[in-house]
Amino acid sequence: MDRKRVRCFVNIFLVLTTIGAWLVMCFSAPGTLALNGFGSLKYFTVQSNLLVGFVAIAWLICTGKGAKAGAGSAKGSDSVIARIELLKYISAAAVGLTFTTVIGFLGPIYGYPAMFEGANLFLHLIGPIGAMLEIIFLSEASFTRKENRLVMIPSLLYGLGYLANNLVNGFGEWPDTNDWYFFFHWGYPVGMLIYAILVTVTWLLGFMMRNLQRKRAS
Question: What is the torsion angle, in degrees rounded to the nearest 10, for the CA atoms of residue 154, residue 187, residue 173 and residue 109?
């Protein structure tokens, strides 16, 4: 089976495990760090997974029209697929941050069984791992150091929105708190430190994928 066909199956799988899992979350009983309906969109977990899913749809559409699934060139459909490959790289780092946060931060607080219950099994574990493995083992794009820095954009934007919401509206009380990830539970300085660490981890995940992909290609 050729690489493009394998990637088609992987991207269909990513659509099902991201957008599909979110739809299940929307219409099922909420669990830990989960809300019914569109309220779940406030979570970085959901936003990053949906980004992966929609980029996977774009990849399927674009390659289905004959675009080459590689780094691309400056013209035509190859330029489009090159941008999609970059978005894949960025979204894989974003869901990689979700996975890392669950493993290293939220899991110890809430317990790992709760983190992988129901739809969260796909949003916290299967989807993120699948997205990162696709970049490492299947992508033929060549990412630059500048593009490595671009992977920090989703976490930076989310963090700024999260901070602004807490500054403007206050923390609130559980379960209606605006600090639903408890980043500012120990005060703003600690919260900002956590924020800086998460953005750095996103860059490191991009760096790791980029280097593992290059080693695989060589």
Answer: 70
